[in-house]
UniProtKB/TrEMBL annotation:
UniProt keyword Transferase, yes or no: yes
Keywords from the named record: Transferase
Coiled-coil intervals, chain numbering: none
Domain Gamma-glutamylcyclotransferase AIG2-like, chain residue ranges per copy: 49-171
Name this polypeptide is given: Gamma-glutamylcyclotransferase (GGCT)/AIG2-like uncharacterized protein YtfP
Source organism (scientific name): Methylobacter tundripaludum
UniProt keyword annotation of Transferase present: yes
One term of GO molecular function: transferase activity
Residues in the signal sequence: none
Classification lineage: Bacteria, Pseudomonadati, Pseudomonadota, Gammaproteobacteria, Methylococcales
InterPro entries from the UniProt entry: AIG2-like_dom (IPR009288), GGCT-like (IPR013024), GGCT-like_sf (IPR036568)
Length: 177
């Protein structure tokens, strides 16, 4: 029940009983919760997105503003990957080396079915773009600054990295161009 405001739960009947031999028992009755289907799905399977480049707040770009309209900032985060300078923008690829990290931000998408197609268009990901797409959108584990891991959508660079320069910083915003 953690995470639900008390007002959503109403009142509960709970009692603590001391049983023989010193063991404790706790019983509680909660009224049934009537959450909408979309709200249930969001709580049980939230759509997070990890951004590490031009979609970050500090870029003040048009697309970062669009993301802010469709999502709520959750926390700064890191992704276990290598960060490359593709041009004036970054490309992250997964890495098995725990020393390879990409710094970014995690957002909770309010309506993933609306926001993700807009972001896919920006990242040129999808069947309407030439194959192979420059990025692929993948579910990856990211570590929030708070210490909690979440599974988030990440736009992973999808072209060969040979000939690309590794970013000098895990934080592309601080990367000299």
């Amino acid at each position: 029940m953690r995470g639900f405001p008390i007002s959503r739960l109403g009142t509960s009947k709970a009692k603590l009983q001391l049983r023989e031999m010193g063991s404790w028992s706790f019983q509680a009755e909660f009224p049934s919760l009537s959450l909408g289907i979309s709200e249930d799905r969001r709580i049980m399977n939230p759509d997070y997105i990890f951004v590490y480049g031009t979609l970050r707040r500090d870029t003040n770009s048009e697309m970062s503003h669009l993301l802010a309209k469709h999502a709520e900032f959750v926390d700064d985060a890191t992704y276990q990957g290598r960060l490359y300078k593709v041009d004036s923008y970054p490309g992250a690829v997964p890495s098995d080396d725990p020393n390879d990290v990409v710094q970014g931000e995690v957002y909770l998408l309010h309506q993933a079915d609306v926001a993700l197609p807009l972001l896919d268009q920006y990242e040129e990901f999808g069947p309407e773009f030439p194959e192979p797409n420059e990025y692929s959108r993948q579910k990856q584990s990211v570590l929030l600054k708070s210490g909690r891991f979440v599974t988030a959508w990440v736009y992973v660079y999808n072209h060969p990295t040979e000939g690309l320069e590794l970013a000098e910083s895990a934080n592309f915003i601080q990367q000299p161009l």
